[in-house]
Structures
1.
Amino acid sequence: MKIRNILITGAAGFVGSHLAERLLGEGYRVTGIDNLATGVQKQVPKSVRFFKRDIRDPSIVSLFGNIQAVFHLAAKNCISDCQNDPVETTDINVRGTANVLEACRKANVSRVIVAESSALYEGCTQYPTSEEEVCPQSFYAQSKLAAHALATAYQRYYRLPCTSLRYFNVYGPRQDYRRTIPPAMSAFIIQLLKRQRPVIYGTGQKKRDFIYVDDINDFHLLCLKDRRSIGQTYNLGSGKKYSILQVYRMIDQMLQTGIKPIFKRDLPGEAQVTLADIGKARKLGWKPKTTLEDGLQNSIEYIRRVVVSHQ
Ligand SMILES: NC(=O)c1ccc[n+]([C@@H]2O[C@H](COP(=O)([O-])OP(=O)(O)OC[C@H]3O[C@@H](n4cnc5c(N)ncnc54)[C@H](O)[C@@H]3O)[C@@H](O)[C@H]2O)c1
């Protein structure tokens, strides 16, 4: 079936709003659902048919009529918030996912792409980590594993054509800097631009695989076009790792501040290292294109223009 109409849950969020923009640019019609818990409606492109709805609401099924593909991105996803509220985490990430998958089944959707996370590898010690080596620790990671299991069951029992994507640390303009504890890159950039001392949790030696949001969207488009992705799980990272301190120094050099960070006690439930084995995604013809330097420069320009100048 030709894909024309696409629904995104979490459309007002960081990845969802970029994806909406990209899909519209490719000529698709886009419907967006978001309860605006952390999302921002003005980030949603104007031509998206937008509904402020909760993914746990069974009546969302009425929005899935004539939809051929669904990207399920809505989630409670700040690890420390999830640690503080395991019940709501499970409710949104597990029951909410079941409700979205059920709506997809009822509407006979022909492609379902589900956002998972590198958090599934929190306890792993093999690097780079392949899709097989799952070892979730935190409540967030456990909820994403349960969501994965649900997608697998919908695929098995109802032939729902699902693809699971394990994003590593996605960054770029609009990364959610409003969280209780914002992602490190946004937090560093905002505070250094304001000439404040950013906080590093732990020693700064934790290493992360950072992937630019446009590279993720390249893979999203590939999923729509390549049926080999159905029933598969893919790691989406850059395949390179940088310590938090290295990233701090890069940003500091770009902004030329010389400001020293404040070190605070490490956060619970976080992996020491993440590094994606992206061999499987590469086999589909995908490769990450954006260097960390270029991605950071774009993030700095956005934060300077949109965030700091308005505070
Ligand atoms: N950004 C990353 O680095 C990263 C890494 C791994 C996985 N992920 C996953 O990718 C997806 C998108 O992440 P993001 O960075 O864009 O996050 P985000 O927080 O910017 O977007 C999530 C959106 O979901 C919405 N939402 C939350 N609960 C909802 C509910 N009950 N009903 C409807 N909408 C709801 C929020 O309002 C928000 O707009 C999430 O599933 C996340 O777990 C992201």
Note: The domain at 5-170+211-236 is CATH 3.40.50.720 (Rossmann fold).
2.
Amino acid sequence: MLAALGWALWAWYARRRIERAVTQHACKACGASFADDAIAEPLGGIRAADRQRLDNFQRRFARHRVRCGDCGAVNVVTADGVPFAAWYD
Ligand SMILES: [Zn+2]
């Protein structure tokens, strides 16, 4: 029970941290700034289908996906919240 609570807290904290970090960057597809909280929608972690779009080097750094509220592109983000690839799905 306590472990589950701890994990939930950690997951929430990690997600919050990425959301804040990503606001300092811009969409890789359209260049819109993520400075406004409303513009970046977190989509969660990288899935197998996403990994197939990335090369080996990019896969090492891909941690999260964020949707651009401006153009709708899916941005691939590092553990530090830096977007480095984007596509439209
Ligand atoms: Zn965009």
Note: The longest helix spans residues 2-22.
